[in-house]
C-alpha cells in the first residue's frame, strides 16, 4: 500500500466545493480544510505508485478550481528502523 499526503491550493471562494469533491474521490481517506500556505490537505492510499499517480493527476488535479498540488509520499517506517514506533 502506498500512502501520500497531498497539499492542495484552490481558487479563492471554492474551498468548500473542492473539499466536497475531493472527499468523493476513490482512494482519498481523509480531506481537511486548513489555514496557511495550502487550502486543503488530503490523505490518499493506493495499491501502487501508478494508481496513486492516477488518483492525483487523473482525479484530484482535474477537479474544477484546483490551482495546484504538492504530494508527499509517506515513508515506510520500517525502512527507517522505526518499526517500534506506533501511530
Give the gist of this structure:
This protein is α+β, with helices and mostly antiparallel strands and 87 residues long. 24% of the residues lie in helices and 34% in strands.
Beta strands, count: 4
Distance between the termini: 16 Å
CATH class: Alpha Beta
CATH architecture: 2-Layer Sandwich
What structural class results from the helix and strand content?
A: alpha+beta
**Assigned CATH superfamily:** Lrp/AsnC effector binding domain/regulation of amino acid metabolism (RAM) domain
Largest sheet composition: 4 strands, antiparallel
Detailed description of the structure:
The chain has 87 residues and is of the alpha+beta class. It has a single domain (2-76), classed as Lrp/AsnC effector binding domain/regulation of amino acid metabolism (RAM) domain (Alpha-Beta Plaits, 2-Layer Sandwich), CATH 3.30.70. The chain has 2 helices and 4 strands. The chain has helices spanning 15-23, 49-60; strands spanning 2-10, 28-33, 40-46, 66-73. Strands 2-3-1-4 form a 4-stranded antiparallel beta sheet. It starts with a strand and ends in a 14-residue tail after the last strand.
Amino acid at each position: 500500500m502506498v500512502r501520500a499526503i497531498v497539499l492542495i491550493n484552490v481558487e479563492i471562494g471554492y474551498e468548500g466545493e473542492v473539499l466536497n469533491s475531493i472527499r468523493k474521490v476513490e482512494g482519498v481517506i481523509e480531506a481537511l480544510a486548513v489555514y496557511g500556505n495550502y487550502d486543503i490537505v488530503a490523505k490518499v492510499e493506493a495499491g501502487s505508485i501508478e494508481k496513486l499517480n492516477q488518483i492525483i493527476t487523473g482525479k484530484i488535479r482535474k477537479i474544477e478550481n484546483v490551482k495546484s498540488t504538492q504530494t508527499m509520499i509517506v515513508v515506510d517506517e520500517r525502512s527507517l528502523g522505526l518499526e517500534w514506533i506506533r501511530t
